[in-house]
Amino acid sequence: MRFRSVFRASLANIKTSRSRCFRRSFSRLQPQSDRPSFGIAFDIDGVILRGRTPVGGSPQALRRLYRDDGTLKIPFLFLTNGGGVPESKRASELSQLLGIEISPQQVVQGHSPFKEVVNRYENELIVAVGKGEPAAVMSEYGFKKVLSIDEYASYFKDIDPLSQYKTWRIKQTYDENSSMELHPRYDVYSDRVKAAFVVSDPVDWGRDIQVLCDILRYGGLPGRDKGHQPPIYFASDDLEYQAVFPAERLGMGAFRIALEGIFNSVSSSPLEYTSFGKPNPFVFKNAEVILTQLVSDIYHIQDNMDGGTGHEFSTLYMIGDNPKVDTNGAMKAGHPWFSMLTRTGVFRGKDNDSQFPADLARLLLSKDALAENLAPIRRVVVRLRTGHETISTL
Predict the structure, then answer these.
(1) Which of 75, 155, 270, 328 is packed most tightly, with the most Cβ within 10 A?
(2) CA 105 from centre of chain
(3) Which InterPro entries does the protein's record reference (predicted)?
(4) How far apart are CA 44 and CA 40, in angstroms?
(5) pLDDT digits over 15-39, tens only?
(6) Phi and psi dihedrals of 35, rounded to 5?
(7) Is 50 exceeded by the pLDDT of residue 390?
């Protein structure tokens, strides 16, 4: 296996672009003397939500991070390996489910780093894979020629030999004046796919593995002469995640393992891929940039020449439920990250995780839990209820 986790985006450019967005998102500025020395990153699935249902008192806990007038008091964001919809849509959904105002800039999904490679593939044909709206996500990032794998596969007759046995139907684009023949928006029969992006968890694993193997083995043009493998990018590499069902569900990492095993069996060269998402430390460094920009916007701190705000956090809390990605990622990122592990998702142990121990484990967010006495500089008291016991730390 060749595993490449390559992030070449310029953090300086990210700082500059996000700074403009934050200033538009938060208009009521606060005095610099009140600014906190810490920020918070929450995982979503298994920490804040189970499906579309809030976990415990998470909405009430999050409201503690806002002032009485609804303005943000403590910089926080959602750092998730999930996705499938644009950040703007996800922010709107979270706002409705949690009863608080969430900005799109506070939502960092597994596929968010894909926007940093737009310049490389902006005008090239790419295929987007996964549930939800993968093509819409990529289009919003600035990719000009993107097709979902549903649409792409529909243009190649018999590429999925099992399609006749499937009871579901995929919406297709037909030309009414051509005897119902499909008319591709791009010349998919001669234009090679330059890259594939697994945006979210695939729905039809069998078809998607087959079509991706065709694209990757034949140089971006299924059924033609074999060619150099186009790049493939995964939004995350989670083996499992916590959904509504009591036991963990297989995630994108499981799909990647399945694709890789099959591709390596039918190809003379091993699969080469790039995986984003937690626990890659770049994701945490990028989150730190966003949280810094939040502080800049809330407290009206002037940018430095390098695009930064000059604000430094003494502590950044990663609150997650999956030791392999949340705790492991915070450990890899190092200072100022401090990992906190809940018992409401993947992790169910009585004590800490043995392989990736969190700085603080066995937590359950509740309405009385998060952030009482949050303001003091260089000191934060986080109260999280564990049964009848209340833990105060730091």
Answers:
(1) 75
(2) 12
(3) CDP-alcohol_PTase-I, HAD-like_sf, HAD-SF_hydro_IIA, HAD-SF_hydro_IIA_CECR5, HAD_sf
(4) 13
(5) 444 544 444 445 455 555 567 789 9
(6) -65, 140
(7) no
